[in-house]
TrEMBL record:
Residues 242-330 form the Beta-ketoacyl-[acyl-carrier-protein] synthase III C-terminal domain. InterPro entries: ACP_syn_III_C (IPR013747), ACP_syn_III_N (IPR013751), Thiolase-like (IPR016039). Keywords: Acyltransferase, Transferase. Gene3D superfamilies: 3.40.47.10. CDD domains: KAS_III. Residues 329-373 are annotated as: Disordered. It comes from the Bacteria. PANTHER family: 3-OXOACYL-[ACYL-CARRIER-PROTEIN] SYNTHASE 3, BETA-KETOACYL-[ACYL-CARRIER-PROTEIN] SYNTHASE III. Residues 109-189 form the Beta-ketoacyl-[acyl-carrier-protein] synthase III N-terminal domain. This is Beta-ketoacyl-ACP synthase III.
Amino acid sequence: MTPGAPAAVVAGIGACLPAVVVPNEELVAWWEADAEWIRARTGIERRHVVSPGEATGDLAVAAGRRALASAGLGGVDAVVVATGTPDQLSPAVAPQVAVRLGLGPVAAFDVGAVCTGFLYALGAAAGLLAAGTARSALVIGADAFTTVLDPDDLTTRAVFGDGAGAVVLRAGTAGEPGALAGVRLGSDGARHRLIEIPGGGSRQRATGQPVKESDLYFRMQGRAVFSQAVTRMAATARDSAADAGWAPGDVDRWVLHQANARILAAVARELRVPAERFVSNIATVGNTVAASVPLALADGMAGGHLRPGHRVVLAAFGGGLTWGSAATVWPDLPTPPPPAVPETTPVEGPDLTEPPAAVRRRSGGGTDQPRGR
């Protein structure tokens, strides 16, 4: 990008995690699994889970409020929410987030690209700024993904957690700290079945047949997804670095979607860069889907691993299949406080922190093994 040309600039950041924490030891108690097996396979030690009545919109509002405060702004011209778990099928959650934040009748819409959603939302918001439609935008990645997991499947319950992260973008110029460069987005719909929730949409409803309960839960073909994630994230991240004029060795910090610790290690090997340059918080939050990249950014800042002046590349891969990346020189922002807790009053509903029904039904000393173990 030509120095001095119009650009979208990162101006604030915020994060939110639900209060309830589920460590591996609780999963072990439910499934008679091995806590070390979970950690070794995924790199995850614990994850945050929404309580009854908490939803994606609650997480998004809390993270958005923190990001606005970080930027020193009372309002923005647009709100873009990336999520795979909106509060309802229709309407989008973004307009509700905007009104709860007191932002007035601003442009507000959702982006659905699952784990790549935050990068797609950044691209969409940057486009609004480039077109002059907005001078500032709040971009939020938020998911309560534990609400769409099969309660009897350890292979997904061990991996995913809930949360939200947000950044504020303002109109600025290329070359200044925080200016986004090399925004790359891609997809491969031919492989959409690798990551999906089959039921609940118009395709299933148009059959006129009752939906199977199992079709309402998230499914993933792990081995094939692993290969695609490594290949696609490494390629798009390398392209964004090149767009910014950097070789992989010039990049100070890589902030990638926190899907699995082994995927991050494989991407580092693919790029031939030290793993120490990768920001990672997967051990404490798990895979938070669209919230993953902004949560890692906030955590990297809070821990001192991400500092002003660092050359940073963001990248993600998710359902669709989709992938995306962007580059920036990290700006001097206030160190984010610990993630906010959702601002909601829990209502009567299922407790996602309780062991699944199949486990509760077992008598002591059951022999069932978790799927995929």
